[in-house]
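help with this:

***
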Amino acid sequence: MIFTTLLLSSPAGATLLTVRDADNGELLPNAVIEVHVSGAPGRPGVDDDIIQRDAAFHPHVSAVPVDSRIRFPNQDSTRHHVYSFSPAKVFDLNLFLRDTPPPVTFDQAGVVVLGCNIHDHMQAFIVISDATHVGMTEHDGRWQVPDLPAGEHRVRVWHPRLDDSHQQWHEFSINGADQQDILLTLTASPPPPSEPSALQQRFRDATQ
């Protein structure tokens, strides 16, 4: 992990954070940013959906508070088998087609990597957060933190391309900054190819 301290004299307030690739300056969407305000509680859990459509998860990255309940509707004409072995949540939704299994409750902070037992290329991420503020960058790589109380606050940034474990965070602290660029060194391997293997194709054909 990389630790940086930003001690700026501007008054506390909204802070614009921009996340970039340290190698080429590319703006990075889907970066999850947590701001921890000492003594302040995290957000209450929410209900949300991660849809399977065109043999892909939508959205690719989600950020939700602890105790959120997430459903996994299947909008494809093929079966899916959604699972995770991540420490923050181990679960398994056996083969289902054109229906929605009961929601899964994510009751522990951490990063959950989703996969499908039928389609190896399918992958998505859920960041379960106990932070006071949590948000995600859009296509422009930016997220604006709401007004913060005076003082220094711990900030953590996660991105699916940080490393292959998908558990690494970039950490620093902020104290009244109006804006700040965050440079991430991305070391994760390229995603697997989207074409199914011959065995997967036979299984998919047999279960349609």
